[in-house]
């Protein structure tokens, strides 16, 4: 059976790398744990790093985090669905918000539960996902400040997650200016400017973060050490905190070109034939994983000589050439992962999860 392995030492290395740089700038930060899909073993590894704050987009995952550590601050990082307002107040100490009717419901439920619920108002800064339109911001805040049991702990923005709009110094400076305007207008203190995510980490490393940005929420950079500007590993960080181990279930020398009339495969695509490969063969291995668990495009072979051919629902086919590594049935083949691939694996009941 295939399994996903998290390396505790590499996770700690990346955590300390980021913590050192955040501490130097007096930046508070939380770890985004939606990748772990509520897996308590993985959540415990993150919480044991010493982090105070966990971010997630599923309320069941925040509940799991509270069950691991009741002292952890939980942050719900998308506008809350009205259907689960009661659970939001129960399990999320903080939520990201951009709809006034939802915040009114949060206020009413917080009163019922005798809690003060913190909110971060998200501002639309160009990526066109969640966020209050900037022209409406003052009116929006004026309504929020009058609600009982609601504490505005910050304002924030989200970039790169929908249309790929990248953060830059100008956008982040605009965010800090909105904070100043709101504080002066309403004589209210807003502690956080949450302008930082994994995509913003390279700006931090290049000393291009405005001084007013004092809060980050980080996931992908911690787990994969990835610079989302260059799509390369950040110097000094580990890129294989998590790896996939897949077992070979068949290995034969076979032709490189299929034979017979070609139709659409189950993925809806049709194979193209490279006529120069007619008559040539390769050792071809079948691995015990497929599209049911991960899209092959999110797999990065540790062995660079290995070539991913394609997959079916639960089998992955790879070419191993002349098999110079002497692979055999029963051997495990390792892959590094891209974020969306690891997310699918963590969400798959068919993949074991282990910590080393």
Automatic annotation (TrEMBL):
<keyword id="KW-0413">Isomerase</keyword>
<feature type="domain" description="Alanine racemase N-terminal">
    <location>
        <begin position="9"/>
        <end position="225"/>
    </location>
</feature>
<dbReference type="GO" id="GO:0005829">
    <property type="term" value="C:cytosol"/>
</dbReference>
<protein>
    <submittedName>
        <fullName>Putative amino acid racemase</fullName>
    </submittedName>
</protein>
<dbReference type="Pfam" id="PF01168">
    <property type="entry name" value="Ala_racemase_N"/>
</dbReference>
<dbReference type="GO" id="GO:0008784">
    <property type="term" value="F:alanine racemase activity"/>
</dbReference>
<keyword id="KW-0663">Pyridoxal phosphate</keyword>
<dbReference type="GO" id="GO:0030170">
    <property type="term" value="F:pyridoxal phosphate binding"/>
</dbReference>
<dbReference type="InterPro" id="IPR029066">
    <property type="entry name" value="PLP-binding_barrel"/>
</dbReference>
<dbReference type="InterPro" id="IPR001608">
    <property type="entry name" value="Ala_racemase_N"/>
</dbReference>
<dbReference type="InterPro" id="IPR000821">
    <property type="entry name" value="Ala_racemase"/>
</dbReference>
């Amino acid at each position: 059976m295939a399994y996903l392995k998290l390396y505790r030492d590499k996770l700690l290395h990346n955590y300390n790398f980021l913590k050192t740089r955040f501490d130097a700038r007096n930046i508070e930060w939380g770890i985004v744990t939606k990748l772990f899909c509520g897996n308590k073993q993985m959540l415990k590894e993150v919480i044991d790093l010493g982090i105070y704050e966990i971010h997630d987009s599923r309320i069941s995952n925040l509940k799991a985090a509270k069950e691991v550590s009741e002292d952890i601050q939980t942050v719900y990082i998308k506008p809350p669905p009205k259907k689960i307002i009661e659970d939001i107040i129960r399990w999320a100490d903080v939520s990201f918000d951009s709809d006034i009717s939802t915040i009114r419901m949060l206020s009413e439920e917080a009163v019922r539960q005798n809690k003060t619920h913190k909110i971060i108002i998200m501002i639309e800064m160009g990526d066109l996902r969640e966020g209050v339109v900037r022209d409406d911001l003052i009116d929006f805040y004026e309504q929020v400040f009058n609600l009982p049991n609601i504490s505005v702990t910050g304002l924030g923005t989200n970039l790169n997650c929908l249309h790929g709009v990248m953060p830059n110094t100008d956008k982040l400076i605009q965010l800090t200016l909105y904070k100043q305007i709101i504080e002066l207008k309403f004589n209210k203190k807003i502690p956080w400017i949450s302008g930082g995510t994994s995509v913003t980490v390279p700006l931090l490393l290049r000393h291009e973060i405005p001084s007013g940005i004092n809060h980050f929420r980080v996931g992908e950079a911690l787990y994969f050490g990835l610079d989302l500007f260059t799509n390369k590993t950040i110097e000094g960080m580990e890129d294989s905190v998590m790896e996939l181990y897949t077992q070979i279930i068949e290995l034969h020398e076979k032709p490189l070109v299929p034979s017979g009339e070609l139709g659409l495969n189950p993925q809806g695509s049709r194979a193209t034939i490279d006529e120069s490969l007619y008559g040539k063969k390769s050792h071809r291995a079948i691995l015990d994983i497929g599209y049911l668990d991960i899209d092959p495009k999110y797999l990065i072979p540790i062995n660079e000589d290995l070539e991913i051919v394609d997959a079916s629902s639960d089998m992955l086919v790879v070419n191993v050439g002349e098999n110079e590594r002497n692979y055999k049935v029963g051997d495990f083949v390792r892959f590094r992962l891209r974020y969306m691939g690891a997310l699918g694996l963590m969400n798959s009941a068919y993949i074991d999860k282990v910590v080393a």
